[in-house]
Amino acid sequence: MRVAGDVTAMSNVEDERLGRLLRLLRRRFGTTQAALAARAEVPRLDIIRVEAGRAGAIRLDRLRRIFDAGGARGRWHVVWNGAAADRLLDERHAALVERAVTVLQRRGWTTAPEVSFAEFGERGSIDILAARPARRAIAVVEVKSDLGSIEETNRVLDAKERLSPRLALARFGWQPAVVGRLLVLPDEDRLRRLVARHERTMSAVYPARGPAVRAWLRTPGHPLRGIWFLSEVRYPDARPPSKA
Known about the structure:
With 244 residues, this protein is an alpha/beta fold. 45% of the residues lie in helices and 20% in strands. β5 (137-143), α6 (150-172) and β6 form a beta-alpha-beta unit.
C-alpha cells in the first residue's frame, strides 16, 4: 500500500479498521488532516499513517490524542489465550484491592469494598470505603492497577468524594467529620515516572505522598488527598506489611 510521501507499508486488519474509522470521524466533522493534527498536537504525517492503515507505526500516546481530537476515545483490545486480556488486569486489580483492604484493617480501619451508588444520575462504585469510627473519619479509596486517562480518573474520583459522606452515613450509620481521598497505585517505577511526568496536575489534586499518607492512615485528623503507592507483595500475618 503506497501513501503520501515516503510512507509505504503493509497494514493489519485492526490498523486498517482504525484508519477507516478516523477518516469517517474526520469527514463527519469536516476537518482536514492538517487541522486534526494541529488539534491533537501531532505531525500531519501521523494522521496520514493512521488513515493509511499504519496505526502501529504511531506512538500510543499520539494515537490517543488523535482520536481524542476527533471526538472519540480509543480503547485498545488485546487478546490473550483466546480471551480478552482485560481479565488479567481485573485479576491484578482484585489482588491490589485485597492488599489495600488488608493493610487498612491492620491499621484499624473498617473496610467496605465495592460500595455501589446511584445518586442524582451518577452511578458507579467505590473500590473501598474505609472508616475509623473513633475519629469519625472515612477514606474513599480508588484502586488502579494502571493509569489510563488521568483527567477521567480525577473527575470520577471527584464525584465519589463528593458523595462519600452520604454513603458513609448509609453504610456505617454516622456522618463523617473527616474525609480522605486516596488513589492507590502499584508500587512500580513505571507508574511513579508517569505520575512524575504529570506532577503539576497530580500534586494539585493529590498533594500527599508516602510519609504523609502513612501518618494520616494512623491518625486521620484532617482531610487528605493523596497517592498511595502500595506494594503488591503478600506477607504472612506474622510479619508487618511493607511501607505504603
